[in-house]
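Every protein is a chain of amino acids, and every chain bends into a shape of its own. The protein below has been through that process, and both of its lines are reproduced in full.
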Amino acid sequence: MITFPNESARYRTAREKLLKKEIELRRAMEAVAEARRALPLGGLIRQDYVFDALGADGRPAKTKLSELFAPDKDTLILYQMMFPRHPQETRDVAVSGGTARLARPDQPCPSCTALLDQWDGAVGHLEAAGFNFAVVAKTALENLVTLGRDRGWKNMRLVSSAANSFKRDYNAEDADGAQIPLLSVFHRDGDGIRHFWSSELGFAPPEPGQDPRAIGTCETLWNLMDFTPQGRPDWYEQLQYGGACCH
């Protein structure tokens, strides 16, 4: 076992007990991942949904779901963000950048935006490892592209589902049209494109005193806070801090 300068025996004993729990957590995480990989085949998509996206020439173009799969890359990780924000969202709106021109109800969810800030840098690595990644939102493509420009996103493929029922069909939009955050995975096989998995924890009751943590193991910002003595603060992500965009 290791030690650190000036630590007490009491600290080391408690730390070794905690380490055992951390090992148990690591084993549990791998067991869940193994069970996820062993899921039976999911349902084939009902249609090859057509999205609005930027084409190879940088101009708006119609893009099918099947076209979000690169050759020889058969898995698509798709984040369905809340853009527009939830009708009950009370956090401040963007006050600078192109996104600030949108009315309050039409602006994006601060938490979804912060999460994508964290993921943008990982996308190039995901693609190099053999995966596809895209972000879909029920807003006009122009709004989504403007948000990406405001945030400094460089790697994520952004697509608009404003003209189709994709988000409603895949449980990222409720009956009243409110947007729901969802991480979904689709896989392509010889029969077509199938839904593999989505982050259903957001639909399950949260633990007492906790938020739903629907994508908890992927939320880098909050997981880093869990390593600190104070833990997660009574705080939520904002689109801007002190009037400046954070990216």
